[in-house]
Design a protein that fits this description.
Two copies of one chain form a homodimer. Chain A is an alpha/beta fold. The first copy, chain A, has helices at about 15-30, 40-45, 60-65, 85-95, 110-125, 150-170, 190-195, 210-225, 265-275, 300-315, 345-350, 370-375; strands at about 5-10, 35-40, 50-55, 100-105, 130-135, 175-180, 200-205, 230-235, 280-285, 325, 340-345, 390, 390-395.
Chain lengths: ~400, ~400
C-alpha cells in the first residue's frame, strides 16, 4: 500500500477545491497512490486522525467539487511550530497508520512554511515522507509566482461589483462619494484589480503611505470636476507611521477619531468631516469577493485544477520533496497569455510578501498603469460552464460536514 | 407628431433597464409613437428639458441595455408635490415642446404615486396627456402584484452570496457567528429570500418585533448544538417600540450602546457582549445585491422587459391612463410558474407597503415556511445569456453620461 493525503489551510478561495479535484483526478488517471485521503480541517484534523477517502469520487462529483467555492475539506489557522516536534511525530504516526507516503498541502504562505518545516524535519530524521505545497491565496502575495490561484476569481468578482456599484452610484445626481473596501491586509493586488472596471477615480493601497491631506485634495479636485468620486481602498491601507486607516487617524494626528469600522468607513467620514461631500456610501466587499461561484475566472479554475494535477504527477516521480508548484512569472505582458508551471523549494514561497509593484502605481491615488492592466486582463477573462441543480450552481456537501 | 417619454426613478435595480428596453423595442415593433425620448435623471431632468432620443437604438444596443444594471437614464429622488402644481405645468410645457403625449415612469411606490398625481391633475384640468407606471423595486413591497421586477435578481444575488459566504464560514472550526445584512427598510422580502440557500440558521425581519433576549437564546442554542450560527438580518429589523436594531439598543434598554454601523454589526456585538461567541464576521450586502449583472434572474429580466412592452402596447390603445402594469398574484404556488400581466389604477400601487407575510415566518427566528420557499423558487432560477465584450459582461454607457 502507498497512499497520499491532501489537505487545505488558511482562508478559502473560489478555486481551492479545483486544486483538490486536480490531485484526485490525476490519481484516477494514474493510480500511483492506492488511496487519496483528504485531511479534514487542515493539519488540525490530520493530527486528530480525521481523514476522508476521496479516491473514488465520481466524475460528476469532481466537476461539482471544482466549482464549489471555499474549502470543501474545511480549513484551519493552526501553524506547526518548528520547536514543537511532538506535532511532527504525531503527524508521521497518523501517516504511518494509513500508509501515507506523501502529503499535499494547499494553502498560502504560512502553509508553504509548514511544507518547508515538515520536509526539513523529515529529511533530518531520516523519515521517508514527502510534503508538497500547492499555493492559493486571494491576496496574490506569494513571491516567486506570476500570480496565485484564487486571486483571479476574487479579482473578477471585485471588478464586476466595482462596475455594478459604480453604475448604481453614477445614476444619482446628489453629491456624495462612494468608497469600496476590499480585502488585502499587506498587499494591494485585489484593490488594484478593481481599476480594471474603468470606473475608479482614486485608489488607496497599502503600498503607498496614506497622506490624508493629499488624498482629500484629490477627492476635492474630483468632486469639483465632475460631482462624483469613486474610491477603492484596501483594508490594509495605512499611514506612514504604520497605523492602519481602519484604526482611525494616524498616531501623528494627536488623537484618534471615534469612528469604528474599516478603512472605507474611515475614508468616508474624513471626506464628510472635511466638508468635501455631504455624504457617502461605503461598500465593504469583505468575504463576498473571496469565495464565489457566480463569477469564477475560467483561467483561475483551470490553473488551480492543473496545479493540483501537476503536483500529483511530479510526486509520482518519487524523488520530489519539499517543493511547491506554481505559475511562472510571465516574461512579457505583450504576448498572448499562456500559463507555464514550475516547481521550486518551499522556502522560496514561504514568509515573504509580494507587494503590488511601485512602478505600476500612478501618483496622486490615480490608480494603476497600463502595464498593470496588461497583467490583470487575461486573468479575469472567461467564465467556466457551471453545472446547475434546481436552477442554482451546484455545490458539493463539504467533507467536513459529512 | 406623436411622441412618448420614458424615465426612471428611485433606487436602481439589475433589470430596470430591461423595462426601458421593452418600451423602446415595442415601439420599434409597432411605431405608435414617432419618437421615444428618455428623460435624464427622472422627473428632475425632464423638468430641466434633458431628454435623449432612444427611438433608433440598434438591436445590439438593446440587448446590452437589457443586461446593464442600474438606471441607464439616471435616476432621482425628486417627488412631485400635489401642492406644487408649477412642476406639473412645467412638465406639460416640456412634453408639449416635444409633442409628447404619453409618459412611462419606471419606479417604486413613490413613482407610482407620481403617476397617480399627474394623471389626476391632467384629467381635472382637461390636459390630454397620459401617465403610465412600470414598477420596479428590489424591496418587493408593492401591494397588488405577485412580485416586482428587480426583486428576483437581487434575491438571486443574495441567495448565492449567502451560500458562498456560508461555505466560507463553515470551513473554519473556531467558534464565531456570521451575520449577513441585506437591504429592505420596511419589508423583509430580500432578507427572507436568503433562506433559499438552505444555510440560514436565524432570520431577523422587520415584520417581527425584535426581542433581544429571545434572539440571543436562539443564538446560544444554535452555537451549543453545532458550534456555528449563520444569521441574516434585514437593515430594517427593529424592536417592538420601533427603534431600529441599527440604531443601537432599544430605547427601552435605558441607554444606547456606542456601537456604530448597521443592524449586522449590532447583532454581532450583542452576541459577543453576551459571551455566546468570542467573535463574529459581518457581511453587509448593501448595494452589491441591488444592481448586478453577474447573477441576474432570467425570469426577472424577461418579466421586466415584457412589462415595458406591455405598457407600450396597452398605451397604443389610446384609452389607457393613470395605470400601472404588473404581474398578477399567483393563484396557486403548486402549479408550474407562469407570469400573467395586468394593469391597475396607480393609486393601488402607491403609498402602501406589502410586508413579508406573517404566515410565512417560522417562530423563534427559524426562517421561512415551505410555502414561502415555493413562492421564491421559480423567481430565482435560470440565468440570461449575456453578451460579452473583452471578456466581461457588456454594459451600455449610461445616457446621463453621454
Amino acid at each position: 500500500m502507498r497512499n497520499c493525503l491532501v489537505a487545505q489551510s488558511g482562508g478559502p478561495t473560489a478555486v481551492i477545491n479545483a486544486s483538490l479535484a486536480g490531485v484526485i483526478r490525476a490519481n484516477q488517471l494514474n493510480p500511483f497512490y492506492d488511496r487519496v485521503y483528504g485531511g479534514i480541517h487542515g493539519i488540525e484534523g490530520v493530527l486528530a486522525d480525521k481523514l476522508y477517502d476521496l479516491t473514488e469520487l465520481s466524475g460528476r462529483e469532481l466537476e461539482i467539487l471544482k466549482q464549489t467555492p471555499s474549502s470543501a475539506l474545511g480549513t484551519c489557522r493552526y501553524k506547526l511550530s518548528r520547536e514543537k516536534t511532538e506535532d511532527y511525530q504525531r503527524l508521521v504516526e497518523v501517516m504511518d497508520a494509513h500508509d501515507i507516503e506523501c502529503m499535499f498541502y494547499i494553502g498560502g504562505n504560512d502553509s508553504m512554511d509548514t511544507v518547508d518545516a515538515l520536509s526539513s524535519w523529515a529529511q533530518a530524521n531520516g523519515i521517508a515522507k514527502r510534503f508538497i505545497g500547492i499555493p492559493k491565496t486571494v491576496d496574490n502575495d506569494l513571491v516567486p509566482v506570476d500570480h496565485c490561484p484564487g486571486f483571479a476569481s476574487a479579482a473578477k468578482v471585485a471588478v464586476e461589483i466595482t462596475h455594478a456599484t459604480y453604475l448604481d452610484y453614477a445614476a444619482y445626481t446628489r453629491p456624495e462619494v462612494f468608497v469600496l473596501e476590499t480585502m488585502g491586509r499587506d498587499a494591494g493586488w485585489l484593490a488594484a484589480s478593481c481599476c480594471m472596471s474603468g470606473d475608479v477615480d482614486l485608489l488607496v493601497l497599502p503600498e503607498v503611505p496614506f497622506d490624508k491631506d493629499a488624498f482629500l485634495a484629490q477627492v476635492k479636485r474630483c468632486m469639483d470636476e465632475k460631482n462624483e468620486c469613486y474610491i477603492v481602498v484596501s483594508e490594509g491601507g495605512r499611514y506612514a507611521d504604520g497605523t492602519y486607516i481602519s484604526a482611525g487617524a494616524s498616531a501623528n494626528d494627536g488623537f484618534a477619531h471615534a469612528v469604528l469600522g474599516g478603512a472605507g468607513l474611515q475614508l468616508k467620514q474624513m471626506i464628510v468631516d472635511a466638508g468635501i461631500a455631504p455624504r457617502g456610501v461605503v461598500q465593504d466587499l469583505s468575504r463576498a469577493a473571496r469565495s464565489s461561484n457566480f463569477a469564477q475566472s475560467l483561467v483561475d479554475v483551470t490553473e488551480a485544477y492543473e496545479l493540483g494535477m501537476s503536483a500529483h504527477m511530479r510526486s509520482a516521480d518519487g524523488v520530489f520533496t519539499s517543493s511547491v508548484v506554481g505559475i511562472k512569472p510571465r516574461t512579457s505582458l505583450d504576448e498572448p497569455y499562456s500559463a507555464q508551471f514550475f516547481a521550486g523549494p518551499a522556502s522560496e514561497f514561504a514568509n515573504y510578501v509580494k507587494q503590488f509593484p511601485q512602478e505600476w502605481i500612478l501618483p496622486d491615488y490615480a490608480g494603476i498603469t497600463d502595464e498593470a492592466k496588461k497583467y490583470f486582463a487575461p486573468l479575469i477573462e472567461g467564465e467556466p460552464k457551471l453545472v446547475y441543480e434546481n436552477g442554482r450552481p451546484a455545490t458539493i456537501v463539504p467533507f467536513n460536514q459529512r
